[in-house]
Specification:
The protein has 6 helices and 6 strands. It is α+β, with helices and mostly antiparallel strands. It has a single domain, classed as Glutaredoxin.
């Protein structure tokens, strides 16, 4: 699993090609992000995690996605400008990916296959709100919403999956990051 995770072709927000291979031997927190979501303020805490833990080997990686109520409609340039001016984001951002819509990006295929359910589940409030508006995912294993988080260990194994409303400063999430960092 780990080798294939590192070799999946990706595109950075600036359009350059890449893979996760440059993050080999680092802990990665992979997050699907959006600019027009009620959870968008999580960018602040994600940036804080990146700043505090980067020196110990954490890489926060953002993957914009427009699958969730079209809450990431912007171009790559618009997304980059928004993240920079509104939240001072310095962690790596990648081009938009499909997560629940076909064709699902291979990175998310592997992440979801490794952890089909969020370890720390969403609150009833989020699930009820999504249900009320007909926005629940089709499959139980699908990503619930923007800002779902996957924690990948230094060896490339997917260690945990956190629901969108588990904030980056959540004690359980931080504890899992610290454990993965060793």
């Amino acid at each position: 699993m780990s080798d294939s995770l590192y070799n999946i072709p990706l595109r950075r927000l600036d359009g350059t090609a890449g893979t996760l291979a440059e993050y080999r031997d680092r802990v990665m927190l992979i997050v699907n992000v959006a600019s027009k979501c009620g959870l968008t303020p999580q960018y602040t805490a994600l940036q804080r995690l990146h700043t505090v833990y980067a020196g110990r080997g954490l890489a926060v990686l953002g993957f914009p996605c427009n699958d969730f109520a079209a809450q990431e409609p912007g171009s790559e340039a618009e997304i980059g400008a928004f993240c920079d001016t509104q939240y001072g984001v310095t962690f790596p951002l990648f081009s938009k990916v499909n997560i629940n819509s076909p064709p699902r990006h291979p990175l998310y295929e592997r992440l979801i296959a490794a952890h089909p359910r969020a370890r720390a589940s969403a609150t009833d409030e989020l699930t009820q709100a999504l249900s009320k508006h007909g926005l629940l995912p089709k499959q139980e294993s699908d990503v619930l919403w923007n800002f779902e988080k996957f924690l990948v260990g230094r060896d490339g194994s997917v260690r945990a999956r956190f629901a969108p409303d588990v904030k980056p400063e959540n004690a359980f999430l931080v504890s899992e990051i610290e454990s993965a960092l060793g």
